[in-house]
Amino acid sequence: MPQHGSVTITEDASSGPSLISKTSINFAEDISSNSSSSENGGEGTKEDNQLTAMATASASGFASFVSEKRTEANFEKWKECLKHYLIGQDLESVVFGEEEKPQENDSNYKDWVMKNSMALHAIETSCGADTISNLMRKYPDEVDSAKFVWKHLADKPSTIKRYKEEETSSILQYRSLYKAIEKGDWDKTKDCLSGNPNDVRTKISLMGLNALQVAVLAGKLKIVDELVKLMSDEDLEMTSNYGNDYDGCLPIVMTSLYGQRETIHYLLQRTPIEYLSPKSGDKNGATLLNCLISDGLYDEALCLLKKEGYRQLGFMEDFNRNCAIKLLAKKSSAFLSGSNLGFWNRWLYSCVPNFYQDDISPPEPRDEENDQIPCNQDSGDGRSTRKQVVNLAHGLLCRVLKHLVPESIKDMKMRHAQALHLLKLLFKEIPTLKNEELRNLRFNLIVYDAIKNGLVEFIEELITSNPELVWRVDNKGRTLFAYAILLRQEKIFSLIYELGEKRRTITTKRDVFGNNFLHLAAKLSPASQLDRVPGTALQMQKELQWFKEIESMVPSKFKERTNENGHTPSALFTKEHAELMKEGERWMKNTTASCMVVAALIATVVFTTAFTVPGGTSDKTGIPIFLGYDAFLIFIITNALSLFFSTTSVLIFLGILTSRFAEKDFLKSLPRKLIIGLSTLFFSVVTMMIAFGSSIFILLQKRLSWIDIPITILSAIPIAFFIFFQFPLLFRIVINTHKHSLFDRTKEQHVQANLSELGLDSGADEQN
Fold first, then answer.
1. Each residue's pLDDT tens digit, 325-366
2. How far apart are the first and last CA of the chain?
3. HSE-up of residue 537 (Cα within 13 Å, Cβ side)
4. Cβ(235)–Cβ(201) under 8 Å?
5. Residues 535, 587: Cα–Cα separation, whole Å
6. How many CB atoms sit inside 10 A of residue 594's CB?
7. Where is the PGG domain (predicted)?
8. Which residues are bridge partners to 241 per DSSP?
9. Helix axes 261-270, 221-230, angle to 10 degrees
10. What residues have CB less than 8 Å from 445, skipping those under 6 apart?
11. Which residue in 184, 419, 633, 696 has its CB near the most CB atoms, within 10 A?
């Protein structure tokens, strides 16, 4: 059982950062309870009474001791106010002093735990949830100490080391050398070094950098090249004091911190590889790898990881306590699924052939000038002529696309292929890691980040290389598919169809709160996912679609089961989406009212125009004068169509305004009505403009024979504006309403086909 006063950090990806607060409150309640019991028994101690008073004072005063939460702008003021509060509460000994945590059997243990918890609670309350949450994720084993939290949030050290006066004066004598390197003047640099060759190894900057390191940061490749010739391998291992967080980093690591690609490539060839080894005992290798990944230099990162025994770098912490596998889980741009490509760019992306050789061994060098596109031709004698033609056409198409597609798209596809290869290398290393190393990785958080960012490739490769991980649950009892539902990542959840019959078992899993998959689908989607859908009514539709899709997957009895709060899935959905449904109703009414005004105005205009035809009518017969003209026939027909379309649109919008706006109406009924209303409104605008253009042409064709051209152009302007502003919404509604399924079920069909070939029935009854 966890002891009172200690903070237990879990790998729960979605838990809030209130563990410190809960610890403080629970401990205070326990003290208060114990004191009450002692008083009732006549044996209350003075120590217990003091602790109870401290807990009561903290609970009543911590919420208002700092006027503003901690930000970058008010950091100094926040620090001063919080420090005064902690001193006033007699908590300085556990935060600022030398007092360490006593043993549990020590008489002061109870007092220390109480003070530590109160201090932690005060710091958390004044900082905000996000700050504490990030600290807990970065230092999960140290955040139970108020002194540690204060050190990292308030007592921040300077990023640049301070130097003594005599050290400063000593460094200033190299000012001319420093300026020559900064300017890239090798002749002047050479003159400065000629007097004392050992100056190439001396620190010449206040940051503790030598000449090579200054040249590296300045990106002066020529000087770097010349300086390397003057230095030995041991000199290249000289580290810098570039800030407290980067003490001991190599020149190549310093370069990688600033993403200087040319300098990185040069130093990778000059730096002895053993300096970056996982066995070197420092963080240079891991830091270099992580910087390469952060800057998108996946080719350089692959060169490093492909070295024998260097894959462990992907799981080692760098100077910032990050590791490569964590960075990839958060780097959306490294994969296609995380890149927000438009329709046109996505089509171009799909047309570009993948020239990257995805294998575990280093790729063979390729001659760019005489690059031959592989045609995958068979070497057998029975090769058909048709296959030869297809392969030849494919190769020709690849050659053409290689020159037509923008370089940015080709580079993106190459980077994505390299990042995927990098991911495969890291996942192949996971089985070799020790259990302690896996625990330190906090793997559940890594998976959560990948799901949150919608990185399908990450999760797919994870399941492929480690199939047993689909059963892995976190401290809330939730699998990766449960989080795919909570975070509304349909592409990731679609991977469940690749599991075959295992899918039926996974969908019956419940978390520690009694929630099944349908309960999770009933929860409100994260704001980041809702914002991707335009309009709150369509957001409500998307939420209903998720709920209905999951409802069709789970066993029927799960639809009526309650969680620990006594809510069935449908009741929970109604509760979670009550506000969204109100906003959806308001959005639908406002949109409908605006469109209805336009439709009514068009109907009024075209109805009146029918009785005031261009050119008028004959006084004798009442027949329109231009009745025999083709343009007049077009005018009459389009004017009538515009009236019919606009009137229909008005009636449809009227039907929306008088709807019940029930929960189920947002799924199909309201969207379909809106589709019909917007479509008829669009056609009424088009036909009205055609009728108007025909009328002008009839009246002016004899006077201005060229009038048809400007009329056509000008009439197209309002139509173009309607298409530009309204068609994206209309197109989105049509796709969302008539899409067969949210999920990609093609994998399920493939699995069922394989089972049928084996004579197995995949449609067996669900197990209770």
1. 999 999 999 999 888 888 888 888 887 777 665 554 444 444
2. 34
3. 26
4. yes
5. 7
6. 11
7. 586-698
8. 247
9. 20
10. 11, 13, 137, 326
11. 419
Looking at mean pLDDT, say which of 259-273, 505-519, 710-724 comes out highest.
505-519
List the domain boundaries for the chain: 19-153, 165-317, 336-364+385-424+432-578, 584-738
Q: Return the pLDDT at 625.
A: 66
**Token representation of residue 32:** 């208060």
62, with CB counted inside 10 A (0-12, 13-18, 19+), is: buried
- Distance from the Cα of residue 646 to its chain's centroid: 43
Nearest to 558, CA basis, from 529, 532, 522, 533: 522
CA–CA dist 548, 296 (Å, integer): 40
Name the 3-class secondary structure at 685. helix
The CATH code of domain 165-317 reads: 1.25.40.20
pLDDT score of 5: 40
| Distance between CA atoms of residues 350 and 397, nearest Å | 13
Q: Regarding the domain with residue range 336-364+385-424+432-578, which homologous superfamily does it belong to in the CATH classification?
A: Ankyrin repeat-containing domain (1.25.40.20)
Calculated CA dihedral for residues 141, 145, 148, 151, nearest 10 degrees: 150
Residue entry with tokens 């556990």: 94
Instruction: Determine the 3-state secondary structure of 247 from DSSP.
Output: strand
3-state secondary structure of 248: strand
For residues 688 and 719, give the distance between their C-alpha atoms in angstroms, rounded to a whole number.
Answer: 10
Strands (E), 569-670: none
Can 165-317 and 336-364+385-424+432-578 be said to share one CATH topology?
Answer: yes
How do residues 179-211 score in pLDDT, each as one tens digit? Answer: 888 888 888 888 887 777 777 777 777 677 778
DSSP string, 701-745: TTT-TTTHHHHHHHHHHHHHHHHHHHHHHHHHHHHHHH-S-SS--
User: The tokens of 658 are what?
Assistant: 């008088």
**Residue 617, beta-bridge partner list:** 624
